[in-house]
Design brief:
Length: 316
């Protein structure tokens, strides 16, 4: 199996772990302040990975450490917005689709910040995604829920995180301020993930100190709360983001982002079974439009993969 195919397979597993994590997180934020939960979750996950990779971390250069922290700072802001969206959300499946808009925004970030050219399919996907958002908002009478706004903001910042993480996990050449070409050495997946998660945890802890009232946890620190936090930290964070970073390190391109469209589908199915959620026809149509936008955005890649799959059969 080629590295590209391994990357795709790992990304599919990542989407399932991410979807399961939505359920753990939704349960946990019912019993503790949401941003504090993110802080505890990521500090625990980062600490576990840091213990495993401490020898490798010591060998990183100052530039590699700073690039890892930079990715973590961006990711920390995105996760804080995401957890606030989850805290206010009345529909988990809908929030997953809104968050998945980050996949559409990835190439836009690449153009605006890193000046990477994009295909016409990217621009064709944007109005379709906006139409999907409009249908989701119409369900609330032109007054979107605050949770939806948080999810959209998080999606935008997640797009920047995904791009930065891919660049950090791969060796590449950049032009510095003096116009000289500089090679940026890749950062191994394990220490990169550990530093990113620790940075997210510290940043979220600072946000929580200033933005949240640390009232006593609802019902105290129960065994159930500890279970949700540990599952979120170990399964939904440490395992999920380590696997995602490793998958991104196998391919220097952002084509893996298209596979992340599976996440909201898993979330919607799990929310149906876990919370007994339902979805109206308007909401379902909006979600399908967003899904269509994600497919349109990466249609060139999908078409190429289909042709590659059909070519051996034609040869036979």
């Amino acid at each position: 199996m080629s590295d590209a195919h391994k990357s795709d397979l790992y990304m599919v597993i990542v989407t399932l772990l991410a979807a399961i994590s939505w359920m753990f997180s939704k349960e946990a934020v019912l019993m503790m302040p949401p941003i504090l939960f993110i802080a505890v979750r990521f500090l625990l996950a980062g600490a576990v990975l840091a213990l495993i990779s401490h020898r490798v971390v010591r060998t990183l250069s100052r530039d590699q450490i700073w690039r890892s922290v930079r990715v973590g700072l961006v990711f920390g802001v995105a996760m804080s917005c995401w957890i606030m969206g989850l805290f206010h959300a009345s529909h988990v499946g809908e929030g997953a689709f809104l968050t998945s808009l980050g996949v559409v925004i990835v190439p836009i970030i690449a153009v605006l910040i890193f000046r990477e050219p994009q295909s016409p399919a990217t621009w064709a996907a944007i109005p379709v995604a906006v139409a999907g958002l409009a249908l989701l908002s119409l369900e609330n009478g032109f007054q979107p829920e605050i949770g939806q706004a948080y999810f959209v903001i998080a999606a935008t910042i997640f797009a920047l995180y995904f791009t930065l993480n891919t660049r950090a996990a791969n060796t590449r050449q950049e032009t510095d301020r003096r116009g000289q070409t500089v090679e940026k050495t890749r950062i191994p997946a394990l220490p990169l993930t550990a530093l990113v998660l620790m940075t997210v945890g510290v940043l979220a802890l600072i946000f929580s100190l200033f933005a949240e009232a640390w009232h006593p946890l609802k019902g105290g620190i129960s065994g159930l709360l500890v279970t949700w936090v540990l599952l979120s930290a170990l399964v939904g964070t440490a395992a999920r983001f380590l696997l995602q970073t490793y998958a991104q390190s196998l391919s220097p391109n952002s084509h893996g982002a298209v596979i992340l469209v599976l996440e909201p589908i898993w979330v919607a199915l799990l929310a149906l079974a876990w919370f007994g959620e339902t979805m109206t026809l308007i909401q379902f149509t909006g979600c399908m439009l967003i899904f269509a936008a994600l497919i349109i955005n990466r249609w060139t890649l999908i078409g190429r993969l289909i042709r590659q799959r059909l070519r051996p059969r034609r040869a036979e």
